[in-house]
Each structure stands twice: as C-alpha cells, then as structure tokens.
C-alpha cells in the first residue's frame, strides 16, 4: 500500500548537485553532526523550515550527563535501563553514559552557555534519575540555547551550506546503498543531491496526535522516507506522552518541564488530593509513562480534563529563577506558577522508536545514517529517561561522523530508477481536514491506552486515508500528510502486534509485562513486512 516514492519523476532527467555529506533536518542532531562533519567535509544541511524550527529548541529540562563527582556512568546506565523497561540495548546505553560528558564539553566549545553556580555547572534532578545530572541553560530554555549556539556556528562555517524552506521528498538508492536525496526547492523545482553519506536528523512524529508538545514540523518525514527506501524501522509502538502539558482554554499544549516536579512540585487531582502514592513509590518522580497513565486514571475517575501541578509550597524566588520561561508563559494566560495550581494533562512528546541503527548510527541501508529522535539506537528502550535525548544526539552524531571517515569513496555514478505508479491526475483534496482526522484517530485508538479492537479499527480507518499514495502531490503539506500516514500505520501495526504492556505501550487487554515472550523489538520493513528481533539477556 505504501509506495517506494511519493512522486513520479524521471530521476535521470533532473539536475544533480554533489556534496560530501547531506544532513536532512536541523535541531541538535543535525547541527551538531553537520559541524563535526565540516571539520573534514563539505556539508549540505537541508531543513524544510529554518534552523530554529525543531524539537530541540523546545527542550526545557536539559541534557543528562555524568558531571558531578557524586555521579558515575554506572548510575546513569542503571537509571536508563530501568526506565527503558527491559528493551534498551545495554551496549548502546553504555556508549551514551560514557561518551555523554565529552559531548557536553563539545557543546560548550561550540558556544553553548549552560547555567553555572559557584563556578560549577548547575545540575538538577528529573524523574527516574537517581542523581543530579541535568545541565540546563537560562533556567528552563536549554534547547533554545543549544540551537542558538550551534546555529550561529553552522551559519558562519564556510564548509556548511544551509538550505532553508527545502523539502526532501525521498531518499535515492542504488540497490541497498543510499546515494542521495530527491529535493524540492521553494519554487517547486526538483533536483537530486548526491553524497558520500546521508544523515537523517529529521525529528519525531509528535504531529500524529491532536495534543502534542511538538512543533508543526514534527511529521515523521525521515522515518517515513527511510521506510519507503527499505530501511528497517523499529519500536514504533513506543510513543512517550509527557505527563504535564498546560491544559487551559485558549492556550496551546505548552510543555511544563519535568524539572518542575524534580524541584518539588506536587500533582493534585481536581479535588486537591495528591494521588501519585497510589501509583508508584517514586511519587511525582516516577517514570513518565507511569505518571502520564496515573494522570489519565485520575482524570477518568474525577471526570475532569486535567489535573493540577502545584509548586506553590516552594519559594517564589526559586521558581522564577529556575523556570523563568514557564513562569512568564503561564503569566500570559493569567496563571502565576508561584501562587496558582497549574492545570495540566498528558500530550504526545517523544517517539522512542524510529529508523533502526547500529552503534555508529548507520541504518540497514549502506551510507544512510539516522541521528536524534528519528533514530532507534537502542538507548531509550520502551520509555526514554528524561533529558537523555539531547545526550543521544551528540554522542551518536559524533560516532556517525567517525564512521563516515571510514567510508570508501563513491566509485561510479549510481544507477537509480523511479518506480512508476498509476497515480490519479487530481491532487489530494482537503489535506488539513485529513490531517486532523488522522490525529483524532491516533488519540482515540493508539494513544495512552490501547486494545486490539481499537487498534484494528484504527488501522481500518487509517487505510481509508491512503488515497494520498495514489495522488499527484506537489506541496509540502501533502508530503507531510503522506509521511504522517505512513508513521501512523507503522505505529498502530506495531502496537497491535505487541500483546503486552511495557513502558510507554499500554494494552488494556494485555495489562502485564511479559518478558518471556515480548522481550524483543517489533521491526517493520516495506518489503519483508513485520519481523521480531530478540534481545539477549546480559
């Protein structure tokens, strides 16, 4: 049902541009990888909007790394494995916790200004972390500060060319080798960009859901185009919902950082009762999936659309200093974080799954790499530990560049052919309406709580939207919808397959975790279908 290419185009007739390394997407993964690659190569960064439009800039809490003398990589590893609920690759996590500190030093060297207290990095603690190991910047604007620093460095770099407002429609392959990408310019013209290596840094799938903390650009483009090209995609059933997004009339679903709970905030239902003791011994600092489902349970029990986040018992000075942006944002809606309980509810936040990679970020397609949220490195397992995402991007971005150094030159001009499809002449109609319908379907059938009947119904109704794949499409919003539909189908199929509850995947008809049968990955491939990848006990 999902075609190899989204458009019919004679590739051999298109103009061709040659670059050493192609980076698709911005954010911390794209920027960091491009800067590291530019030390040796000419790099083309392609972003469908601008360098400042990515999930990274919205990251409030910070970046997790072993910095404190009281902390150890072993502690960080154990916390990550615990949150990942048995599906992490211990080897990948070991890489993360041992190389994350060097990555932070790289960010500082690239101009990132993390908060400092008494001459030392100011460290905070977040949910499911046993130690204070979260670096932050400007209180609660860590992501924005990192993007600011890296963007300035990338733009000033003569070896990095940045294409804003360009859309990568599909990857171009010769057999099982990625040789570049099919790109559409702002004026609608198309061309092929060829490269020694192509790196997907295109972010996650937050726009699959009606309520999300993600920006409009998070439409799963990289995951979808990699799947169409024949890459293995893994763990798509594990969608992390952030427990606390602002839920207030007239306000978008603004993220209220986990760090607020890390600094002592309580969760209360609409009756004013603290409730987390009923659900987990770590109370408000339990893993995100536990907290999110606990909030939904309280909302259902009290027939409410939200619960309250209460940090009024902490000093007003601390709250304003530590969370200046959250404080100011809430204030614009008449909510004072220091004196008011803030209404919050879960919202789609992070995709743990993505394009399957090895420890060097390389996918099952040669010369194609994935970094950041669009990748599945094995670090996050069934549930990402807070603030590990920014660490993952820099650790594996560095490894990707080291692997690119070892690639042999492209010896001959690749042979590429476009699969011809019988597409209808008329372009797809009412994409905005179809996108909203898709989001509502995903909330209803593949959200925080799932069951077989709902997931089957979801697949059936998503299938009715598949005319996009047979239509002549030319616009960014049409490509995005096709990519969202691809990811929606993959997520729902994987969720139906996994007959257990683990981490961020919760099945009402299979409420227990089943390590004997399900300690394995669900892997999806366009031609081979659905397979399973067993995890060996260490």
TrEMBL record:
Q: Which SUPFAM superfamilies match?
A: FAD/NAD(P)-binding domain, Succinate dehydrogenase/fumarate reductase flavoprotein C-terminal domain, Succinate dehydrogenase/fumarate reductase flavoprotein, catalytic domain
Q: Is Metal-binding given among the entry's keywords?
A: no
Q: Where in the cell is it found?
A: Cytoplasm
Q: Which Pfam families match?
A: FAD_binding_2 (PF00890), Succ_DH_flav_C (PF02910)
* Cofactor list: FAD
EC number(s) reported in the record: 1.4.3.16
Q: Does the keyword NADP apply?
A: no
Q: Which reaction does it catalyse?
A: L-aspartate + O2 = iminosuccinate + H2O2
Cite a single GO MF annotation: L-aspartate oxidase activity
Question: What UniProt keywords apply to this chain's record, in alphabetical order?
Answer: FAD, Flavoprotein, Oxidoreductase, Pyridine nucleotide biosynthesis
The UniProt record lists the Fumarate reductase/succinate dehydrogenase flavoprotein-like C-terminal domain at: 435-537
Q: InterPro entries under this entry?
A: FAD-dep_OxRdtase_2_FAD-bd, FAD/NAD-bd_sf, Fum_R/Succ_DH_flav-like_C_sf, Fum_Rdtase/Succ_DH_flav-like_C, NadB, Succ_DH/fumarate_Rdtase_cat_sf
Where does the record place the FAD-dependent oxidoreductase 2 FAD-binding domain? Answer: 20-390
Give the pathway listed in the UniProt entry for this protein.
Cofactor biosynthesis; NAD(+) biosynthesis; iminoaspartate from L-aspartate (oxidase route): step 1/1
Family, according to the entry, reads as follows: Belongs to the FAD-dependent oxidoreductase 2 family. NadB subfamily.
Name it.
L-aspartate oxidase
Q: Which gene encodes it?
A: nadB
